[in-house]
Amino acid sequence: MFLPVKQAACSGTLNRIMDMIQNILDYSVRTLIQELDFDELSGLIEPALRALLEKKKIREDIEALFQLTYPERTEASRAFFSDRGFTDHVEDGAYRLHPRPAAEHEKSRPMEALGRLCNDLYDSIKNGLPGEKDSFSIAMLQREYEAENGENGRVCPVCVKENLFGIGEGEVDHYFPRKRFPALALHPYNLLPVCRDCNGPRGKHTKNPVDVSDAGPGELCTVFLPYLRSGKDEIELEVSEEPSRYIVMKPGPGGDKNTEKRIANLERLYDLGRRWSTVFPYVYEDVREELRQAGERGETREERLGRLREIMTANAGSTKNRRDFIKGVYCGGLLKKSDEELEEIFLDDAAYHGLP
User: Is 290 exposed, middle or buried (0-12, 13-18, 19+ CB in 10 A)?
Assistant: First the structure.
């Protein structure tokens, strides 16, 4: 998303369950009139995952899948296979995902059946995989994600708010909502630890990352993607001073022709510019306080200006937490200003009257 991050090690278990789903779907279309035989199907499933077939909801979902016509089963299988491979098509101008219809009057029996199976499997394993203590759970994913990503693992990868995922803070978001994109309910590239603000009703919540105007071939080119395409690699952040300080995102040197659209979708989902800008009063005071402390040593005006640039350089680029991050953005912008502009912003402040 905004920060580049790596997957948790336990995400590999999700690939095993994705293989299980593909085996079930392939089994359903193996012959024109394939009959459901749970004993036969169980033999096609990895032994460690067979306990999932014993769950009442999962069995009912599989039975419902076999109630579909052969063309409908084929559609469900193809949709799952295609969506599962979306990571190979992030720059593909002809590729699109297969969403479950949003409108009630546009029900798709194959996608409804696929949705029930994938979402019930997710609900069955999110608190732990039956029979495997240390293979996967949402809590484990959070812990391993934090450990894998160092400093970036201790903040929300979207808004850089400090979150200790390793002790259960924050949430795990389905970037492409699992109700609308059922094939991605268990996809390891679709599960991202984020803060509650970013995942809540005032954040992304159940919004589709792809704007309705961009839906269709090439839609993945219009969005930043967890683990695959980060905003930080393409976005240049600036501080607008008028009418008040505000974080502005614009395409940077690492961007391409679609970066502007990706930024627009990022803002539509998370409202980052406004949320980041609310931190400004605090970071501005932080810089002023550091300068005050330098001034208390009796430095001259020129020496304080040098100290100010040292403060800017020391703070630029931090992702320790959101306050430090915005402070870094602000300081990075200040470093581009002339000595005269810095003097007007800081050294002519009334707080420094009377200093040498």
Answer: middle
The count of C-alpha atoms lying within 13 angstroms of the C-alpha of 335, restricted to the half-sphere facing its C-beta, is 15
Between the two ends of the chain, the Cα-to-Cα distance in Å is: 47
Q: What angle do CA 161, 163, 164 make, to 5 degrees?
A: 160
Q: Which two tokens stand for residue 94?
A: 């002809």
Written as one string, the DSSP assignment of 273-299 is HHHHHTTHHHHHHHHHHHHHHHHTTT-
Q: Does the model's pTM come out above 0.85?
A: yes
Per-residue pLDDT of the chain (356 residues; tens, 9 = 90+): 899 999 999 999 999 999 999 999 999 998 777 789 999 999 999 999 999 999 999 999 999 999 999 999 999 999 999 999 999 999 999 999 997 766 555 678 999 999 999 999 999 999 998 877 778 999 999 999 999 999 899 999 999 999 999 898 999 999 999 999 999 999 999 999 999 999 988 889 999 999 999 999 999 999 999 999 999 999 999 888 766 778 899 999 999 999 999 999 999 999 999 999 888 888 878 877 877 776 555 567 777 788 888 888 888 777 778 888 888 888 888 888 888 888 777 766 544 443 33
The answer to whether 269 and 312 have CB atoms below 8 angstroms apart is no
Residue 198 CA, chain-centre distance (Å), reads 9
Q: Distances from the Cα of 329 to the Cαs of 74, 158, 247, 294, 336, in angstroms? A: 51, 15, 9, 22, 11
Q: Tokens at residue 301, please? A: 């005006």
| Alpha carbon 350 to its chain's center | 43
